[in-house]
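User: I need a structural model of Kunitz-type trypsin inhibitor from Arachis hypogaea for a docking pre-check later this week. Nothing fancy, just the predicted structure tokens so I can convert them on my end. Input:
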Amino acid sequence: MKATTTTNVFAIFILFAFISIHLPSLATAELLDTDGNLIRNGGLYYILPVFRGNGGGIGRTSTGNETCPLTVVQQRSEVDNGLPIIISSPFRIGFLYEGLPLDLSFSFVPLCTPTPSKWTLVRGLREGEGATVKLTGFYENEMQGWFEIRKHLDDHKLTFCASSNNNCMDIGVKRDDEGNRLLVATEDNPFVVVFKNATSSSYSA
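Assistant: Understood. Predicted structure tokens for Kunitz-type trypsin inhibitor:
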């Protein structure tokens, strides 16, 4: 009993330490959608590029030897909003702020993937290939961690933070040999995004 109590106290201490590091500096860093409304924790949104004319929103596709659409990509057409995405934080708060740890997942999933289909980074599957954003549960070399939405000039970008070392990497877009716009870890070219409320939109998977 004493050991269990000590473990629980330690876990609570770690949680409050994390909150104390993240939340004070974020008190005024609220996240807004394209309508100017606060982004809800667990809400449904399209993630779109700030700069239009070079691709659309975020979706999924099959790449390499995949028989299921496991790879997260930017849609090729600028008029394609992509798929609705659930943006959620483990913190019990109603609205989201910059820098909070987040889970990103598609609300619509094919039969070949688990629900919810959360995103993660997968280390290069081929020599010379960087880390690519994919759905969880299919690759042994998945990186453990979380996503964040961070400020980038006057807009926002996505980052992935590895739990092993707290190293955070920007998410960018890279074309593969088939012309797919892969979401990948990048050092110098982040994908600058906005968030459009998808609650009232209709989509058929």
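Before docking, keep this in mind: The two ends are 49 Å apart (CA to CA).
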